[in-house]
Design a protein that fits this description.
Layout lengths: L2 H4 L14 H13 L7 H27 L8 H8 L5 H18 L10 H18 L3
Helix pairs in contact: 2-3, 2-6, 3-4, 3-5, 3-6, 4-5, 5-6
């Protein structure tokens, strides 16, 4: 690639900052509303599931990083187990349950039908409530 092509404004690069929880929730809303043309319904549902799961994982990371910074390199499954020590038990249970559903909704398997619009819409509502409950800015 020539130097002029590398500096061309038409070349897209990944953002230098991670997506915010609000951006991820907005992306999920746009995917559920069908605002992104060219994607199939199943693709939009899986994409929304991934955005929701990522938003929830960011919230869990922020809660636990405040309480126990040493957990930064732990798996999300381990973090979900630790969450019950730093949030009310019902909040931890709901967080783990919706996270587990979102994990299944994100993955493509040839022999399975992807998540339905209603399932993803329910997960979106639950993630929105958990973001507020966890009090993550």
């Amino acid at each position: 690639m020539s130097a002029s092509a590398a500096s061309s404004p038409s070349v897209s690069t990944a953002p230098a900052f991670p997506a915010s929880v609000e951006d991820l929730l907005l992306t999920a809303d746009q995917l559920l509303a069908g605002d992104l043309s060219g994607a199939t319904a199943v693709g939009r549902h899986r994409g929304a599931s991934l955005a929701l799961r990522t938003a929830l994982e960011i919230c869990v990371d922020r809660v636990l990083d405040t309480a126990v910074p040493a957990l930064a390199h732990a798996t999300m499954r381990a973090k979900m187990l630790c969450l019950r020590c730093y949030t009310p038990g019902e909040t931890a249970r709901r967080t783990r349950a919706v996270w587990s559903h979102l994990c299944l909704g994100c993955h493509y398997h040839q022999y399975e039908i992807g998540p339905t619009h209603e399932q993803v819409r329910t997960w979106r509502t639950e993630v929105g409530e958990l973001v507020r409950t966890l009090g993550v800015p």
